[in-house]
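Subject: design request, 338 residues
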């Protein structure tokens, strides 16, 4: 009986330590800010055009994007115009949302009988902006734009050194005078060589894995299950080098692990979390509770974590979103204390 009580105390201590670790990571300043803001990423960028048909024709016929939704024309009342700094005499607004390939959508605004300024801001004016489009071959893209009589503002510039070494870019103008940009860095940027904790998101990441295969965004159910099983191996692996190698097989470079209280970005932050978890609960392990569920490019895993005496000290569920053969986002759900 005494041995049994001692074992129970050990298990309780292990479970408390594990829960304390989750609480510790949940209350860091960075984690709290991310949780409070609730912002995941950029949904769209907006741009005003003088002629809606002209704008849509350029984005669709020249750049190859696809208009998807339309809102309006919507008459705007006086209070809305005042709050949003719109001339009182300007008419209704029509808005079209354009699918711009991989990345944020483009929201195109056009105001009937607009009384706003007809002069584009200069590049150094407050509020001046541009949209940059990624291309794997800037010279070919530039040749194509020229064939469509698009005005090019100079020649491509290759950054020779610094954080953006290896990046080429050049500006061009739309028919209504807005400035846009072509940008390319097929071999990455200089800062990536220093193995930063966070990698800037890039459309090129969606094509570099499995680019030689048709429909490379789609992976089979068996492949997804294998990756999820390796995910469990990552969280149980105590050798940092082996764990890092496993992460590179399973996780995208810019992976986000999203808990209800914090967000971890990239290998380094997730590695730090795993290492801290293992130090706090040295004898605990993660094991699957149910079979892995797969739905297209997503999956869910029910798991438990604990010692051999109490393997379910902590339970939860992970939801995986796969892009280009790797886990791009990992949503972690930890069950309430039993």
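Subject: RE: design request

Done. Sequence follows.
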């Amino acid at each position: 009986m005494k041995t049994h009580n001692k074992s129970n105390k050990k298990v309780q201590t292990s479970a408390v330590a594990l829960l304390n670790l989750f609480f510790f990571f949940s209350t860091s300043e960075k984690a709290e800010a991310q949780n409070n803001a609730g912002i995941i990423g950029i949904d769209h960028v907006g741009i005003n055009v003088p002629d809606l048909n002209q704008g849509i024709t350029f984005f669709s016929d020249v750049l190859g994007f696809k208009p998807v939704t339309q809102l309006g024309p919507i008459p705007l009342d006086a209070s809305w115009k005042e709050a949003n700094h719109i001339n009182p005499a300007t008419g209704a607004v029509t808005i079209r949302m354009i699918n711009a390939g991989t990345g944020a959508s483009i929201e195109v605004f056009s105001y009937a009988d607009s009384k706003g300024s007809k002069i584009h801001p200069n590049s150094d004016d407050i509020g001046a902006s541009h949209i940059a489009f990624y291309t794997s071959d800037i010279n070919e893209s530039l040749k194509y734009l020229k064939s469509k009589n698009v005005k090019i503002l100079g020649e491509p510039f290759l950054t020779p050194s610094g954080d953006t070494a290896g990046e080429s870019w050049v500006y061009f103008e739309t028919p209504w005078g807005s400035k846009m940009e072509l940008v390319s860095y097929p071999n990455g940027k200089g800062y990536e060589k220093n193995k930063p904790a966070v990698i800037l998101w890039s459309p090129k990441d969606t094509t570099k894995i499995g680019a030689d295969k048709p429909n490379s965004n789609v992976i089979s159910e068996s492949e997804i299950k294998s990756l999820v099983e390796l995910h469990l191996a990552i969280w149980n692996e105590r050798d940092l080098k082996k764990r890092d190698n496993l992460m590179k097989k399973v996780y995208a470079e810019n992976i986000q692990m999203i808990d209800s209280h914090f967000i971890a970005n990239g290998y380094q932050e997730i590695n730090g979390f795993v290492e801290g978890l293992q130090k706090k609960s040295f004898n605990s392990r993660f094991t699957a509770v149910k079979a892995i569920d797969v739905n297209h490019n997503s999956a869910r895993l029910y798991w438990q974590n604990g010692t051999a005496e109490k393997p379910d000290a902590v339970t939860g569920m992970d939801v995986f979103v796969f892009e280009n053969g790797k886990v791009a986002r990992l949503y972690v759900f930890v069950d309430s204390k039993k």
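Helices lie at 2-26, 29-37, 52-62, 78-83, 138-147, 221-236, 240-250, 266-280.
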